[in-house]
Amino acid sequence: MQFRRTALVATLSVVALTAAACGGDDDSAAPTPEVADAPEFEAGTTMARIAEAGTIRVGTKFDQPGFGLENLEGEVEGFDVEIAKIIAGALGIAEDDIDFQQTPSAVREEVLEGDEVDMVVATYTINDTRKERISFAGPYYTAGQQIMVASDNDEIDGPDALRDNPDAKVCSVTGSTPAEQITEYLASPDQLVLFDEYSQCADSLSNGQVDAVTTDNVILLGFVADSDGEFKLVGEQFTEEPYGIGIPKGDVEFCEFIHDTLRENEDAYTEAWEATAGQVEGTETPELPEFDECA
Amino acid sequence: MSPVFDNIDLFVDGFLTSLRIILFALAGALPLGVLIAACRVSPIPPLRAFGTFWVTTFRNTPLTVVLVFCAFGLPELGINRSFFFFGVLGLVLYTSAFVCEAVRSGINSVPAGQAEAARSIGLNFTQGLRFVVLPQALRTVVPPLGSVLIAMMKNSAVVGAFGVGGDLWSTGQRLTSALGYETLPIFVGGVAVGYLLITLTAGALLQVLERKVAIAR
């Protein structure tokens, strides 16, 4: 029993030390967006319903560094989370009253159709298949796909080099848009290696099982920054991935409300970026993109 | 059902990839499992200890952990093969422990007198096992072994998530997640039907085999 108690104390102190160490780089406290004081909305609109309820249900990712990542205290942090806070603020909802729900890529349409969330802010690329089931507000950010390789790799200098090196393997995530788009650049489908998470791709790149990793540049930059010079980005961004805010299909009023809110809060938008995804070295602070028409 | 028929070529590819994983894993796990079972019942203590160690290790480790070890651990040790190889290897190692135990239960069901009789007519251990005990054991083994193998067929879905991709499960993920199809029709109408085709066929074959080897004792 004596031994066990010692072990427990040792474990606890390690946990405490780790927590302290992680708390250390918390100098980038996210800004607190403005919360509107009892805003008025036309009866019957989504905004009126949400403001009345005093809480908004937001679907976001819990595992996407820079955009939506759950921290050790169980809170989600990231650019998507900040965007949701700006919109919630305009509805008179404080950030503590936002109900964030973990929404992996595969269920984003379902949670909106099933009315489990009011909106989805989850690195959600706007495309036509998705528009058949839900509507998008935005885009609020335009990401682009790029290629990451090991620093000592000179053969692969962009997506086209993958076609010229038919033995080269490129890694991405099952069911993601980048995995679909890279197929155009491959000599054979066998070149594509798919995992559940980008961290597994990075591990495979590090131990030489794959030659490249591809996804949106901001995600790759996070890995490059953490790799101590082991990885580098090559080539230009070869796609445009407009990230939108998923809302129930046909809710034009809510969509226009989101557009107005983002336009009125451009400063908060810039601050949100700089406190989250913009922390990664090599990223540029974006301008608010031109919005699509609400439909 | 139309989301399935619209993408029938993807499902056929996925079905064939899953089938390929399953056939390779079968070809590995069956002989390996029998070999380990032979170790576990052998008269040589180090072989018995090795068999016990093998079963304890792989039967008590979650399949995903075995697969992580194969896909990420082995490359760290300098072994670089395709993820298909690593995936099948993981499934073979994991399943062999269960095959071994099913076969051993069959061996134990053969009365000890049979092995003694084999020895008394001058057969050594290997010959006795090969010509006397295993043929009798096989009959009782068919039903439990069948369950183990069908479980393995379904476990092949896990292999798809470890860099293999393009199997039935990953195809379902791709269609619902990247291409935006509804989850239910894809997974019920496509993925589940694909696995059922494999497992029901296997079940029918096992039943035929069971009838073929059955004898009244």
The number of strands of chain B is 0
- Cα radius of gyration of chain B in angstroms: 20 Å
Give the low-pLDDT segments of chain B.
Answer: none
How would a crystallographer describe the biggest sheet of chain B? none
* Oligomer state of the chains in this structure: heterodimer
The name of the CATH architecture of the largest domain in chain A is 3-Layer(aba) Sandwich
What does this structure look like?
The complex is a heterodimer of chains A (about 300) and B (about 220). Chain A has about 300 residues and is an alpha/beta fold. Helix content of chain A is about 35%, strand content about 20%. Chain A folds into 2 domains: about 30-140 and about 245-280, D-Maltodextrin-Binding Protein, domain 2; about 145-235, Periplasmic binding protein-like II (D-Maltodextrin-Binding Protein, domain 2), CATH 3.40.190.10. In chain A, the strands form 3 sheets. Chain A has a 5-stranded mixed sheet. In chain A, strands 10-9-11-8-12 form a 5-stranded mixed sheet. In chain A, a hairpin with a 5-residue loop joins strand 3 (about 70) and strand 4 (about 75). Chain A is elongated and about 60 Å long. Mean pLDDT of chain A is about 85; it is low at about 5-30. Chain B is an all-alpha fold and about 220 residues long. Chain B has one domain (about 1-215): MetI-like fold (Orthogonal Bundle). Chain B contains 9 helices and no strands. Chain B has helices spanning about 1-5, 10-40, 45-60, 65-75, 85-110, 110-120, 125-165, 170-175, 185-215. Chain B starts with a helix and ends with a helix. The model of chain B has no long low-confidence stretch (mean pLDDT about 90). The interface of A and B includes residues 129, 171, 177, 192 and 194 of A.
